[in-house]
Amino acid sequence: MPTLIRFIVFLAILAALVFGSMVALTVFVEPTPREMTERVPARDLFGND
After folding, report:
1. Residue 43 pLDDT > 90
2. pLDDT of 22-41, one tens digit each?
3. Any idea of the CA torsion for 13, 17, 19, 23, to the nearest 10 degrees?
4. Would the N or C end of the chain have less CB density within 10 A of its end CB?
5. What is the distance of C-alpha 18 from the center of its chain?
6. pLDDT > 90: what percent of the chain?
7. Which residues of 25-46 are buried (b: 16+ CB within 10 A; e: fewer)?
């Protein structure tokens, strides 16, 4: 039984580290917005089937 509890505690600590890193990414990383353009071929617009 102590091995199972140790394993569960290890998984909980690992989950807390992953969650903490995700929160840190959302707080400290600011994305830079930029304009994006994409060319669409005419054959895709008219759908020549």
Report:
1. no
2. 999 999 999 899 999 988 88
3. 150
4. C
5. 12
6. 65
7. eeeeeeeeeeeeeeeeeeeeee
